[in-house]
Amino acid sequence: MALTQQDISREIAERSRAFAEAGQTRHHPARDYAPYRSSLLRHPKHPLVTVRDPEAVELSGPVFGVTDVTDLDADLTRQHAGEPLGERITVTGRVLDREGRPIRGQLAEIWQANASGRYAHQRDQHPAPLDPNFTGVGRCLTDDEGRYRFTTIKPGAYPWRNHTNAWRPAHIHFSLFGDAFTQRLITQMYFPGDPLFAYDPILQSVTDAAARDRLVAAYEHDLSVPEWSLGYRWDIVLDGPAATWLEEGR
Ligand SMILES: [Fe+2]
């Protein structure tokens, strides 16, 4: 029988209650958070392997590529001949350690759906239009203050097949590299006031309400550029009590 939103919302509420009653602190979402169905099937089942020689891992791991990061890479609205459709936004913030110190020179990458909620990817075949002027991929290096900055368009919500009528709130995927590939961290940024938050098992897999709030960017009027774009601020704290929740354990 097809799973309904009601089924999933009931499971979300059960897990939220259990988390509150246990009075725990969790620094990452559970790897097998049942309301997010595919996490049951594809989460690692073996203990994590201790990496004793990070440099040896680098030899067989992915590499950053041969081209330098340029300013153009951080502007997702200028990667094609024309302008993408949608609401132009600026997203900026700082990458910080637990003491609030800036993480400098960090490669920050983003990927996202277009304004209609469609990814430019062959696996995304839902009936929303592709935008020939939008790929949805960007990158930049953090500056001396740990700051990153992207110009892009606000992504749309999109359906997925977790259950009947499942919709993801609008979000931007973020990846951060440390000094080595083994330090890569992945998370998602959300937009304030999205009505889909309560229905989304991926966001709700972060069972701590304060930690969920830290995944939501703030609209900041002073970051908006007159006649051009709306501004959002989102800081990423890599660890400690105010850490941004990440999709993978470390
Ligand atoms: Fe997504």
Description:
The chain is an alpha+beta fold and 250 residues long. The protein has one domain: Protocatechuate 3,4-Dioxygenase, subunit A. The chain is 16% helix and 21% strand. The protein has 5 helices and 11 strands. The chain has helices at residues 5-22, 37-42, 54-60, 201-204, 209-213, and strands at residues 88-96, 107-111, 137-141, 147-153, 158-160, 166-168, 171-176, 185-190, 218-219, 230-233, 236-237. Strands 1, 4, 9, 10 and 11 form a 5-stranded mixed sheet that branches. It has a 4-stranded antiparallel sheet with strand order 3-2-7-8, with no helix packed on it. It has a two-stranded antiparallel sheet with strand order 5-6. A hairpin with an 8-residue loop joins strand 7 (171-176) and strand 8 (185-190). The longest helix has 18 residues, at 5-22. It is globular and about 45 Å long. The model has no long low-confidence stretch (mean pLDDT 91). Fe (ii) ion binds at residues 168, 171, 173.
